[in-house]
């Protein structure tokens, strides 16, 4: 559901026990499980998105990233703190809803971009956790 301005309103936000995903439910029934990796590589921060589409940075090596903290920002967003130290992205409700709707498409694009640049989802020297 959206208000008159088109904003989606969450009814629940929960970080999974393993800290590798965020579940967000919205008024109207939409609910999404968003992987921490996707949230990290799609962070709305200038560090990732740049100041124009041409400045967007491809973030590799984040397969095992975890969400350390979720900090409310007013009544319109949250700041996610990741265990790699990234903490500058402010995720609005609308952005989280869009990421939920588009997560398959965005993740596929991310994997294609990594492959095109011969980069990995794994951090250099990382041992995969299960």
From TrEMBL:
One of its GO terms (molecular function) is metal ion binding. Keywords: Iron, Metal-binding. Residues 13-97 form the Gamma-butyrobetaine hydroxylase-like N-terminal domain. The keyword Iron applies. InterPro entries: GBBH-like_N, GBBH-like_N_sf. Signal peptide: none annotated. It comes from the Bacteria. PANTHER family: OS02G0197800 PROTEIN (PTHR35303:SF5). This is DUF971 family protein. It comes from Ancylobacter aquaticus.
């Amino acid at each position: 559901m959206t208000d008159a301005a088109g904003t989606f309103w969450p009814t629940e936000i929960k970080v999974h026990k393993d800290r590798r995903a965020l579940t967000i439910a919205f008024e109207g029934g939409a609910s999404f499980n968003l992987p921490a990796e996707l949230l990290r590589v799609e962070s709305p921060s200038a560090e990732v998105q740049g100041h124009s589409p041409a400045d967007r940075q491809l973030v590799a090596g984040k397969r095992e990233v975890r969400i350390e903290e979720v900090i409310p920002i007013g009544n319109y967003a949250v700041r996610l703190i990741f265990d790699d130290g990234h903490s500058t992205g402010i995720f609005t409700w609308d952005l989280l809803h869009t990421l939920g709707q588009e997560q398959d498409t965005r993740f596929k694009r991310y994997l294609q971009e990594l492959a095109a640049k011969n980069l990995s989802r794994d951090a250099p020297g990382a041992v995969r956790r299960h």
